[in-house]
């Protein structure tokens, strides 16, 4: 049955074929072999690189406020791995659509161009398109339009298809657990799907490790495409806040853990912010990005945060990440154009740690927002981004569960 469904989808990509495919993978129990078959079908729909040892990446299951898909490739590069990252846009800010904001940053590659860049090693990051995993891009677009992004078996196949396509031998998966997550709404579900991910990867010849963490509270305070770049810049300048520093340590720890899992060696020296900075500059040079334009854009983002949001009462700030994500994505969608698929009209910088009490009228966030959307959206942001609670959440910084096959 699945063979017929996959054949129909591969041949015509009709709405009916995608509906049948999604329905099949919405079943409670789908065989590992079926997930593997879908991943291979998606990967084989475009160009592929051969598998290569010492080629790695850390992907994520999505969700606002994490920078793992921006920071972990830099750590892996510094740790001596080739990083070939094939990504899709995030909601509201994935790594590839954030990097796209940098002047001239190249995100589309032909096979011949990619092979040339990969041959020199280092870190390269590009987007799924007609050249690489085109069926995955089509299916993901259908899933977004039909609220099917959080179908776990589809998410696993989609993630692995991109790793197959670029010939990874080692992959980490940052699983972010929340009620709106793609791979489990609680730790029990996430652990189940992590094991399935790792087993499927093993059957595809890929070493895999999953890292499960709590995404119900923000990992760090910078939310938005430009804000993600600004967070990186602050790290490079040694100007990160304790909150951002916690998240940087998390990204470093899971990157080191993945390397140790692969090499069985714990002789890894510490990695400085300047090491990350140099890795980032190498990536920009490889992908034709202009570093001075990156700095200019970060400065522009920082200066554009001129709207302040204050606590309506005293207590602990519970940020509503799902509503924050939906609001930013809604405004981004209003700006999408044929010549700008990944616009950056707004973003937030959170100002109050959720486990530290705030006073009434204390600043809890700053907002960057295009002038034409201010009349409608400022009050909406004010009223929806946070609720003040009487008790603090139980936050355990850098706490995560590790799942491997077997």
Automatic annotation (TrEMBL):
Example of a GO cellular component annotation carried by this entry: cytosol
Keyword RNA-binding among record annotations: no
GO molecular function per UniProt: 1,4-alpha-oligoglucan phosphorylase activity; thymidine phosphorylase activity
The entry's keywords: Glycosyltransferase, Transferase
Gene Ontology BP terms: pyrimidine nucleobase metabolic process
EC number(s) given by UniProt: 2.4.2.4
Enzyme class, first EC level, given as a word: transferase
Protein name stated in the entry: Thymidine phosphorylase
Originating species: Methanorbis rubei
């Amino acid at each position: 049955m699945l063979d017929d469904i996959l054949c129909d989808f591969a041949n015509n990509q009709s709405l009916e074929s995608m509906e049948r495919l999604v329905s099949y993978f919405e079943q409670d129990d789908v065989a590992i072999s079926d997930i593997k078959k879908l991943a291979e079908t998606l990967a084989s729909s475009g160009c592929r690189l051969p598998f290569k040892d010492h080629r790695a990446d850390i992907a994520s299951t999505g969700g606002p406020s994490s920078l793992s898909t921006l920071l972990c490739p830099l750590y892996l590069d510094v740790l001596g791995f080739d990083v070939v990252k094939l990504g899709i846009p995030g909601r509201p800010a994935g790594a590839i659509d954030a990097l796209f904001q940098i002047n001239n940053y190249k995100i589309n590659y032909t096979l011949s161009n990619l092979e040339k860049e990969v041959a020199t090693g280092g870190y390269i990051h590009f987007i799924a398109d007609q050249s690489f995993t085109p069926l995955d891009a089509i299916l993901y677009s259908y899933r977004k339009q039909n609220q099917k992004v959080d179908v776990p078996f589809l998410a696993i196949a989609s993630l692995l298809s991109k790793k197959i396509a670029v010939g990874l031998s080692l992959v980490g998966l940052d699983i972010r657990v929340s009620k709106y997550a793609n791979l489990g709404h609680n730790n029990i579900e996430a652990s189940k799907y992590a094991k399935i991910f790792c087993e499927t990867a093993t059957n595809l010849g890929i070493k895999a490790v999953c890292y499960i963490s709590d995404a119900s509270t923000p990992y760090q305070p910078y939310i938005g495409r430009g804000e993600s770049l600004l967070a990186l810049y602050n790290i490079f300048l040694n100007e990160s806040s304790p909150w951002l520093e916690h998240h940087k340590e998390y990204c470093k720890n899971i990157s080191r853990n993945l390397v140790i899992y692969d090499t069985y060696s714990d002789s890894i020296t510490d990695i400085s912010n300047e090491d990350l900075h140099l890795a980032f500059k190498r990536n920009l040079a490889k992908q034709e990005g202009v570093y001075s334009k990156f700095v200019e854009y970060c400065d522009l983002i920082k200066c554009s945060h001129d709207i302040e949001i204050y606590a309506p009462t005293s207590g602990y700030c519970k940020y509503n990440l799902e509503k924050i994500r939906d609001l930013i994505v809604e405004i981004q969608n209003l700006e999408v154009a044929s010549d700008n698929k990944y616009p950056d009209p707004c973003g937030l910088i959170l100002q109050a740690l959720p486990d530290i009490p705030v006073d009434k009228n204390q600043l809890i966030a700053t907002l960057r927002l295009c002038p034409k959307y201010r009349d409608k959206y400022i009050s909406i942001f004010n009223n929806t981004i946070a609720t003040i609670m009487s008790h603090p959440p139980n936050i355990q910084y850098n706490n995560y569960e590790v799942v491997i096959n077997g």
